[in-house]
Amino acid sequence: MSNIVDDLYRDYILEHYKRPRNFGELEPHDLEALEHNPLCGDELGVHIRVKDERIEDLRFHGHGCAISQAAASIASEELKGMDLSGVRELGADWVLDLLGIPISATRRKCALLSLKVVRGAVTGDHAWPV
Amino acid sequence: MRPAAELSLGVRADFPIFERARERPLIYLDSSSTAQKPRSVVDAMSTHLLEHNANVHRGVYDLAQEADAAFEDARARIAAFTGAQDLCTVFTKNVTEAINLVAYAWGRAHVGAGDAVLLTQMEHHANIVPWQILCSERGASLRYLEVDERGELSMQALQSELERGDVRILALAHVSNVLGTINPVAEMVSLARAAGALSLIDGAQAVPQMPVDVGALGADFYAWTGHKAVGPTGIGVLHGRSEILQDMEPFLTGGAMIASVDLQRSSWNELPWKFEAGTPPIAEAVGLGAAVDYLARLGMDSVREHELALTAYMLAGLEEVPGLTILGPPDAERRGGLASFTLQGIHPHDVAELASRAGVCIRAGHHCAQPLMRCLGVNATARASVGVYNDSADIDALTASLRGAREVFALDGAAASQGA
User: What is this model's ipTM?
Assistant: First the structure.
């Protein structure tokens, strides 16, 4: 859909940015968290509904750049139905691989923000994923 | 070599960084973050370190006296550059440290329960957080002058705040680092004084780009930083009225700031050294001395004239970009050499990333002014700012890169229809 081919801003990244999946509020929900990217002040929150120790449904809310929004949108599709024990094991590479684009050091936090907030909601660990 | 450009001071050759050979040209539009350095500044620091290096205020040998003379001579030239000869000039690390110095050393003795500190909504975090901590410790109130939709402050609102009679200090930016607004600081300082309040001006964005006469402004404290004024990092300046600094307790303590030290108590050195604990940034002071010499040779009236013309050109160019909204005063005369903007449908980080593909360096984010961002109803902005080395071709490159960003995001009619 784009006229110009760009390494970072691939069509599917822009597609997820413009039409993010699983965005909004989820009521009722069992778990929630809200995180900030200190670099830019962007924020991303998540609502998670849990059934039988699995993510039954989730919604992200907040605002951010194309990379952080696309990462949240793409990750949300994978996270639905995932065991909480599986979520606890997820590291930075999981979301970087899902994104499939070269992420520079300065944009790394943009890419990892959605995983950080989900891990925060599930494990209470608010550290940046490594 | 670039062809002779329009709206140019013709000084780019003084800045070796523009000669570096890279894949992309260097279109540097982030001077509000930090300015590039002329060779004369780097040479002065290098010569000092290679030929005159010794600690200051300590040695009796020739080399130590050379270092002393270089350091104190730089201080005198720096004070003269900003019209602060009649004030005390203290070297700090940066503006942040200068404001902390005043908030701690003056604030803790003069601000108490029932008192107020008055700021504005357009302050940098450096001029917010130290006052928050002071007010919270002392039970004082922290109030803010509002910024109107044109990015300006109301003198009537200032008057009403001061009439409440509890304001001990007014602290504000001379030029906003986000909106570019040039605040009427002389008038504000004079209103504050009439109401019995002191004033502190954050001149970080003002000193590098316009003539500033601190003595004529009348502020009790005026802070600015070296690295935005084509000088080195690691050195800032606090000009203050000597009688106020004299009455203040020290801020950072230890070596150099003392007159004598006993096992249980100490007494303090004279001004300005009372506020310069430890070995100061000596080579940096020499570098900043060379920086103000450089700017003085250009003439700050010429610098302001150049940046005003370039800013007007930039505002006109940005207005032509579809979907672009400029924040701050619409009139270039009312602002410093910077423009913050948003581009509909593209986050500022992505705007900056795509601009960088064309070699255009602009800043994106909250610019250390999150409270202002909330007032403006934005999460982040992109910001382009000019320096003495920029010209109209740089601005053309900026606007072209923004049009390119819209194409990548397929925000133009033809491209968008395919994706629907």
Answer: 0.89
